[in-house]
Amino acid sequence: MAINPDDIRIAVVDDEKVILDVFSSLLTQAHYHADFFNNPQEAYQAIAAHPDRYDLVITDISMPQEDGVAFAKKVRSNFPRKIPFIFMTGYASEEKRKEALALGRVDFLNKPFILMEVVHKAIVSLLESS
Known about the structure:
Radius of gyration: 16 Å
CATH superfamily: Response regulator
Largest sheet: 5 strands, parallel
CATH class: Alpha Beta
CATH topology: Rossmann fold
Distance between the termini: 50 Å
CATH architecture: 3-Layer(aba) Sandwich
Number of strands: 5
Number of helices: 5
Low-confidence stretches: none
């Protein structure tokens, strides 16, 4: 079964604006529809208001308001649909990874993202040469 990006709605949750901006650009270019939240409480309220709206949640695993695994557990326990989660992390303990994996239908993206590294290298290279 082929996935049509135009039919997919993603919730992206991260307390860092730069991460939300990067995902906004990437997902728009790939033709996915996405909503962006800078804290898990806002995301939870949006999911609660429209439980069938999102096909996937991409969330930071470490946020000051609530960690991503606790957020995922709350979503999963309050809504019957087992929405998949992608956890972004710069560092997650082995215990936290196991806790996330136990939820099922999860994956991980490690920060920094390759795209960010390429952009950073280009910026540094240009600025250092001037």
